[in-house]
């Protein structure tokens, strides 16, 4: 906050000292109240308090045609407040002024033209945005993709002379073929969802949607039958539920390949996701609101808005968005309950959060296996291991012996037994998990580390850790485990190499810092050892029991060393 205020005051000083910065010859020509509201709006805008920013900007609209930066901030605030139509009107009313000449302004005008089915006007606005495509790679991708889509919508054929953007181009091609009802649409979607270079499972929804829309219902059911509730994404669990309950009409209620607005909306949703993956939540929500404006039927996409607000610690806004998911959308309602519980955990602590989700779960008459799985994980994370085991067991008993999902559930239940120090049952579950998936690095690591802590089968544990490290040599937890294994067999030099790397990868992890301190002590680097032990005490996530042990080590060092 302080840094932002300093930047603002520097900005104001420059503003005063630079007559050419705005259209007004002098700052003194502005009403002081307008200026006060404008600068208050900037502060709110910089602090991501968009509602307040919009109030202040609305109170200083006299600056619209006098100050270049005002319009851009005002438009952004309108879109972020989901007032897209008003933002378009502001841009349109100021289209003759130079302050409306920025990339996102043209995107808004293109969206407006698409909404009005005016492809020719949309192309004109796109041509005007050409000068901004070099500002960022995203601008270039947006420009080229919209150019291809507009050509397809207007001419009813695919534009051949086009730039390639890797998998984004594959996605766009699938939707263009779908729009044109080409026979190759199925193969395009199949090539996309089976692409080994990333997770494109979202597009299984659009493939099922296409099959349903073209009356290929048996094929749609065959695709949905390959999905599992537990390990599928939120959109796909809802899709599978619709297919399983024969509610196939739900798909075309929210999306249609025959609708150009729906297709461009999905592209803007993709751009929103790309910005979100870079933690640029403001840009993400900007494009997501444009996406929702073009296709308001796809209410399920609002889950990304809620997630963005949650990750940005804007919990009040997240809860407001979550209210869109009622019980009609079974899995999105459950997503809402989980996210509300996570917010309660952040604000009030784990106990209140687990009580909230438990209460909601108990009111669901026939909870799906996904819901049971999620509630088990909540109990495990809140250290209520007995309850977690109860729910994991319920799911395990319903699965076949060689199910990949069963392997993961045995791992989770085995970990719960291990925390309860029921090592016999823990080892049984973890070993059975490995029989199903022998090369699961995380199960290998967990079981081996458990054995190391118990001083049990050290040689075999090290062998398992070496296998895990070969499979996941960049995972800091596995690196820490193998380093600790070398510590236990008193090979401190080798141990230091691994644990040092683990600390570099996870500098905020209490256990890793504690381990590194122990190793440094054994290497007679005692000042450094105490430094890392003290660092453990400065970390927020340090367990109280570990704090007590660290307090003793800082005073007495490692005993028997």
What can you tell me about this protein's structure?
This protein is mostly helical and 561 residues long. The protein is 70% helix and 0% strand. It contains 31 helices and no strands. It has helices spanning 2-17, 32-46, 50-58, 68-80, 84-93, 103-115, 119-128, 137-155, 167-179, 185-193, 202-213, 217-225, 234-244, 249-254, 260-277, 281-294, 302-311, 315-322, 330-348, 350-362, 369-381, 385-396, 404-419, 423-436, 441-453, 458-471, 476-488, 492-505, 510-522, 526-537, 544-556. The chain is globular. The model is unreliable at 4-47 and 52-67 (pLDDT under 50).
Protein traits:
31 helices, 561 residues, mainly alpha
How is the main sheet built?
none
Task: Classify the secondary structure makeup into a structural class.
Answer: mainly alpha
Strand percentage lies at under 5%
Q: What is the distance, rounded to the nearest whole angstrom, between the alpha carbons of the first and last residues?
A: 48 Å
State Rg.
28 Å
Catalogue the unreliable spans.
4-47, 52-67
Number of helical stretches of at least 4 residues = 31
Helix content: over 70%
Which overall shape is indicated by the principal axes computed on the Cα atoms?
globular
Oligomer: single chain
Q: Give the beta-strand count.
A: 0
What would the average pLDDT be, to the nearest integer?
Answer: 84
